[in-house]
Amino acid sequence: MTRAIFSVDPGESTGVAWAVLNDGRNTMALSSMASRSHSASKTLSGPASAQIRELYCLWVMFKRRAVNDLRIKPEDVDLVFEEFVLRPGATPGRSTTAPERVAWGFEGYRMSHADLYRERGRALPKHYTEINWQLASSAARFNNRKTLESAQAWVVGKDHERSAFAHMLLRLNIVLDQNRGGQ
User: Fold this and answer.
1) 2-9/77-83 β-pairing
2) Which of 17, 138, 171, 182 is the most exposed place for a label (fewest CB within 10 A)?
């Protein structure tokens, strides 16, 4: 089986990673990550509005390629975002809420495009990918040099891209558990 995963660590600098992976029943996550294909990562910076637009373009290109060129079923294309949770005592200001602005701005931008598609007389797209929200603390166990090097996902000097790959690894583990009959 094949799964495409697009993961995002939003913020003032947004890390993005994407790949096509094997999610077969007997697959191990680290080996699947190490042998992934159609994979890349990128760090976006600048105003939230510019990041949102670029993120949307990257997402659309990735999903189109996965579905149209690689023939992956739309429901096997995952969109993963690190979930933003404002902790008590966090330093107030724009930098503190940047992840929330980028994530929800991206979702609103996607919804707007879907609405425009319908308003132009076209049927709704056959599939709208829901976001899989994941806590930073849940992906943290994968966000270390040893694990990411084993997964061939250690990106030197790119903390946010490494975080996006850690979220991809978490999502892949969840999918593999489900495929094996777990929750």
Assistant:
1) parallel
2) 182
